[in-house]
UniProtKB/TrEMBL annotation:
Name of the coding gene: Pemt
Domain of life: Eukaryota
GO biological process: methylation; phosphatidylcholine biosynthetic process
Full protein name: Phosphatidylethanolamine N-methyltransferase
Keyword Transcription regulation applies: no
Length: 162
């Protein structure tokens, strides 16, 4: 038997019926679904590469779309956070600065991952046939598996605390 008391308490603090919350959850779920489906479709058909005239142009276009979708997701997340109830016991300076520190570490991982991988390495270039010379093992990949995902998660966690 599962104890759901913690989930019941959590849902007491989150208004899951709020439109902003629903839109944020949908945008968070949609983004990786979209780019993975499009990348796999490209890998099978090479249709985007044909339309754009080259794999690089197609990858850059998909990367731009992903960046725009990420901006939309961040906006939806921010608006949802504004409309949700705040935990009164967490409304302290230390919570804000902890969130700021967690976001800073997340940003370090995201930016350093991007710099290590480059644009096409970050934005699914391998699905377009754009392969790197060798596996990236420098920082932050020497510290974490999937530093881009962990970094993004840390940014949103920190943002939530702030």
């Amino acid at each position: 038997q599962v104890d759901v008391a913690a989930m019941v308490r959590l849902f007491g603090y989150v208004d899951v019926t709020d439109t902003g919350f629903i839109v944020a959850v949908l945008s968070i779920a949609f983004n990786p679904l979209f780019w993975n489906v499009v990348a796999r479709w490209e890998h099978k058909t090479r249709a985007l590469s044909q339309v754009f005239g080259s794999p690089h142009a197609a990858c850059y276009c998909l990367g731009a779309v992903i960046l725009v979708l990420n901006c939309v997701r961040s906006h939806c997340f921010t608006e949802a956070m504004k409309s949700q109830p705040k935990l009164e016991g967490w409304d302290y300076h230390w919570t804000y600065y902890s969130g700021l520190a967690i976001s800073a570490v997340g940003t370090l991982f995201v930016i350093s991952s991007f710099l290590a991988l480059g644009f096409t390495g970050t934005f699914l270039g391998d699905y377009f046939g754009i392969l790197m010379e060798e596996k990236v093992t420098s920082f932050p990949f020497s510290v974490l598996d999937n530093p881009m995902y962990w970094g993004s998660t840390a940014i949103y966690l920190g943002w939530s605390l702030m």
